[in-house]
Amino acid sequence: MAWQVDFFVDERGHAPVEEYLTTLPVQHRAKALALVKMLEQEGPNMPFPYSSQVRGKLRELRTQQGKDKLRILYFGDARRAFVLLHGIVKRSAQLPEEDIHIAEARMGLHVRRLEGRKK
């Protein structure tokens, strides 16, 4: 079964993860896109080290290219789709709290939009 994977789109119509991917070197982008494809195939069964929980419903896709640790923060929404929220090249052992907050804010906005459509 193929799972739906969507890019979060902000109020201005920008898809931050899609834009992040275009800034990556070709090899980095290829690895990140392979992870997205794997998420489409594996869904919630995607194993560690390719996916791990960050906090609450927030998860991260994980890969490495050389010394660069690529992360894409995402979550599964009420439509049973995965939404890619925020991408970073991780430079420290922990995910920066600022990046987690960005992803959580985008997740909240996405959930509110879905709830607004139900009414």
Topology:
Layout: E1 4-7, H1 16-23, H2 26-42, E2 51-55, E3 58-65, E4 68-76, E5 81-90, H3 97-118
Parallel strand pairs: 1-5
Antiparallel strand pairs: 2-3, 3-4, 4-5
Tags for this entry?
119 residues, alpha+beta, five-stranded mixed beta sheet, 3 helices
Categorize the overall geometry.
globular
The ordered string of helix (H) and strand (E) elements is EHHEEEEH
- Separation of termini? 30 Å
Largest sheet geometry: 5 strands, mixed
Number of domains: 1
How much strand content do the residues show?
Answer: 25-35%
Structural class: alpha+beta
Determine the number of helices (DSSP H or I, runs of at least 4 residues). Answer: 3
Mean pLDDT: 93
pLDDT under 50 segments (min length 5)? none
Question: Quick one: how many beta strands?
Answer: 5
Strand order of the largest sheet: 1-5-4-3-2
Helix content: 25-40%
- Radius of gyration equals 14 Å
Q: Overview of this structure, please?
A:
The chain has one domain (4-117). The protein has helices at 16-23, 26-42, 97-118; strands spanning 4-7, 51-55, 58-65, 68-76, 81-90. 39% of the residues lie in helices and 30% in strands. It has a five-stranded mixed beta sheet.
Briefly characterize the structure:
The chain is an alpha+beta fold and about 120 residues long. The protein has 3 helices and 5 strands. A 5-stranded mixed beta sheet has the order 1-5-4-3-2.
